[in-house]
Write a structure and sequence with these properties.
Layout: H1 3-12, E1 16-20, E2 23-28, E3 31-37, H2 42-46, H3 49-59, E4 65-69, H4 72-83, E5 89-91, E6 97-99, H5 100-110, H6 114-117
Antiparallel strand pairs: 1-2, 2-3, 3-4, 5-6
Helix pairs in contact: 1-4
């Protein structure tokens, strides 16, 4: 998966995306997320062996991409677009490491008001 592949998928998913300086600027609902490939393997070096095993168990061999964002909604749009095409694992830096679709479902539940949960 290349940066251009990810940009094209974001565009196909309805997210305004443009490659700039080796990363993607993804605009969604007035906010922005930046998607950058991990070309030097920094992400993989940050993980413990059990975390690497979990990720590889979910998606096999993987290409790492970091997502920085101004709003979680912009980041979620990136995750949703990527998950629609490729197996995707998410590490939200808050204790969750798992399938992207599971992350999106949990995030959707957390963002709802109590009266919406019924």
């Amino acid at each position: 998966m290349t940066l251009d592949d990810v940009r094209d998928q974001l565009l196909a998913f309805g997210v305004n995306a443009d490659c700039q300086d080796g990363r993607i600027a993804a605009l969604h609902e007035g906010s922005i997320a930046w998607v950058e490939p991990d070309l030097v393997g920094e992400l993989e070096r940050e993980y413990e062996q059990d975390e690497l095993a979990r990720i590889e168990g979910l998606i096999g061999d993987w290409d790492g991409f970091g997502v920085d964002y101004r709003s979680v909604e912009a980041a979620d749009a990136v995750v949703a677009a990527v998950c629609a095409r490729w197996p995707c694992a998410v590490d939200d830096d808050a204790g969750f490491i798992g399938p992207g679709v599971e992350y999106l479902a949990l995030n959707s539940i957390r963002s709802r008001r109590p009266e919406e949960l019924g």
